[in-house]
Amino acid sequence: MKTQNSTYHIKTDMILAEQIEIDLAKKDLSKFSVLYERYYLQIFKFIYQRVETELQAAEICSDVFIKVMENLKTYKTSEIPFASWLYRIARNTIYTNYKQGKKFRQVNFSSNDLINLTEETYEEQLDKLGIVVEALKKLSHEETELIEMKYFEKRTYFEISNIMGITENNAKIKTFRVIQKLKQLTKLAL
Amino acid sequence: MKNANYKKDRQNLTDEQILKNKDFKSTLEKVNIKPNPITNMIKTWGIGGASVLAVVISIYFFNNQTENNEKFADEQADFTYKQNTLQNEITAIKPPFLDQDIPYEIFNIEVDKNQEITTKSGTKFFIPKNSLVDVNGNKISGTAQIQYRELRNPIDFFLSGIPMTYDSAGVVYHFESAGMLDIKAFQNDEKIALADGNSIDFQFNSTTAENGFNFYSLNEETGTWTYDNQPISIEKNHQESKKINNQLSIKKEKIKKPIKQNKQKYSINLKVDKKNYPELEKYEGTIFEINEMEEPFDPLIYNVNWETAEISNSNTHGNYTLTLSRNDSIIKLTVYPVIKDEFYDKAITQYNQDKSQYIAKQSSTDFDVYETSSAPTVQQEITFNTIRTFSIEGFGIYNCDQPRYQPEMLAKKTLLDDNGEKASFNNYYVVGLKRNSLVNLGYLKGVRYYKKGESIVWFVNEKGQIAIIEPNQFEKINEINSLKFRYFDSKQGVLELKNLLKV
User: Fold this and answer.
1) Hey, which residues 144-173 in chain A have their CB within 8 Å of chain B?
2) Parallel, antiparallel, or unpaired: how do β-strands B482-488 and B414-416 relate?
3) What is the pLDDT of residues A152-184, one digit of tens each?
């Protein structure tokens, strides 16, 4: 099949090599170690970004990989990239813990992240960071996730769409709406 | 976000610190592969052990049996819901109206003879002789009663109360079904089971000819579906296919203006078998553009080596379904034919010539449409004669499905009844006319509906009434402030839904 106009270039040999690793792991879970080694760090960071402590992140990360291995046979390469599938499971596990009150949800950001977000929401001033933080607290879980991924983790809309299971366009639209909402909230706070 | 901390400039962990938490061995030890629900099912019935589902390759299996005793339904489907025997066990299956639950066909069989059973729908299944055991695992003799029903459309799914959601690693999907079956066996009103090492082979009359449907079994206690990784062979009835081909050969071809390729969109250039689709061979330089309005397109598909590519008619006008498959996966894309830039002028010239000739021959002027008066009949017959062949190794509920996301649109509107009274409900059902699925969602701030095609949305209230939202309101959703619905009693409501869904 000939590729035409593909926006995303992903090396075929890498995908095929990983597909072989996944197939091997489906037959023998001990072979999953290769994938565990490859993705542990980034999944841990994704989780740590959303919880309070290192210990909480380690526990959730362990749960995520257990779920991944338990459900590996249902995973299909054609449906979603493997990394995105891991992120989705991590996202769901974090959310479940948060909803059940098992782990405290924390939104972490740097001063620079906040300045960038403030510039988006608050046209002139950079001395109103506190107001933006207060506005952030009024966002829903999903809205907060969009801000976290786009502004605090600098993910592309393509990545966000894969992690959240929505279209790229939808990710853009939703993020735009959250920014609009933040603008409204910050105006009200003035 | 409630119950959350907002933390600025927390010190990041170094990679080394993070990697200290890594422990693959310990993680692996905690992995608990869930047992096959069939095992649970048989265990529930007091019989140890179960084996894996097998796939039957040959569709001629039944013709080769030497001791067949073909059975048809002994009784018309007048089965009343057996609350005494089933209610305590089937906790996850909750029919909304017991008096309208989907009835079972009943077959009384002699257990010491091979039995080939043909159901009302045309599905056949084969039960081997001496394959049934009682709750203690002892082989039984004499006669047994097989109860069988198929759930073939959204109303069947609704009335049966069988859950249609599928949780894949924490992500909830809604099943689109190619047909579901429920089979039970009894002797003297006691449940019996299939003995270890035996299987029931099915030639299942599927509701769709499309590929991409997987096979799942239901744990009736928990309501969870388990994916079975085995492929299901799909065959079309030979005799009926021939009839259909004859009809196709008299299909009157009309003329469609070629569409120029849009280079901003994803497209696929591949050779497919176009013999039944002369319109695709008409113009040189025809390729397929992906219709992302139907499903988002994942460009990773380009990077997979697919073994086969098949084209088939799509339910939506002007579109085709492209099915790409390899040994471990099948995907379907909605595509439409377009003409490459360099061939477009030539295609337009040809189109204009064809159009002139067509006008000369026909009084009709309905261009730009491929339609025939016999098309619905052809479609219906193709659907009716698709046979999915598989085996099961325990009685229970099985489904040929593909998981789908929930409807993409959300209408946040006040719900008003006939009298203009506001109402709210705990949950609701959505059916898209283009999909054989039933989506049951909790009602929060609005109702979900499909962007493309008509959506039928209804609620069931505490009095057992069905409240149906007038479907045409979704077309003008931005112009209205509320969604109006009408109450029906359960029987009238089901009739109304059947009418709306054309089932």
Assistant:
1) 144, 161, 165, 167-168, 170
2) parallel
3) 988 888 889 888 888 888 888 889 889 988 888
- Scanning every residue of chain B, which has its alpha carbon at the shortest distance from the alpha carbon of A169? B296
Q: Which residue of A has its CA nearest to B292?
A: A167
Residues A157 and A185 in one domain: yes
Last residue of a domain, one of A67, A99, A131: A99
Task: State the residue range of the domain holding A28.
Answer: 12-99
Spatial distance between the Cα atoms of A176 and A169, rounded to a whole number of angstroms: 11
Which ranges of chain A have pLDDT less than 70?
A: 1-13, 78-79, 102-103, 122-128, 188-190
> Which residues of chain A lie closer than 8 angstroms to B266, CB-CB?
4-6
ipTM of this complex? 0.83
User: Looking at the complex, does the CB of residue A37 fall below 8 Å from at least one CB of chain B?
Assistant: yes
Q: Which position has the higher pLDDT, B431 or B58?
A: B431
B139-154 tens-digit pLDDT: 999 999 999 999 999 9
For residues A18 and A95, membership in a common domain is answered with yes
Residue A111 in contact with partner chain B when CB distance is under 8 A: yes
pLDDT of residue B226: 84
**Closest CA of chain A from B211, distance in Å:** 15
DSSP letters, B435-479, are: SSB-EEEE-SSSEEE-SSS-EEEEEE-TTS-EEEE-GGGGGGGGG
Q: Is A62 in Cβ contact with B27 (below 8 Å)?
A: yes
User: Which residue of B8, B19, B264 is in closest CB contact with A109?
Assistant: B8
Q: Are residues A88 and A150 in the same domain?
A: no
Place of tokens 């000939």: A2
pLDDT band per the 50, 70, 90 thresholds, residue B132: very high
Report the alpha-carbon distance of residue B334 to residue B290 in Å, rounded: 6
What is the DSSP secondary structure assignment for residue B280, as one 8-state letter? H
Dist CA B474 CA B175 (whole Å): 23
CA–CA separation, B372 vs B274, rounded Å? 19
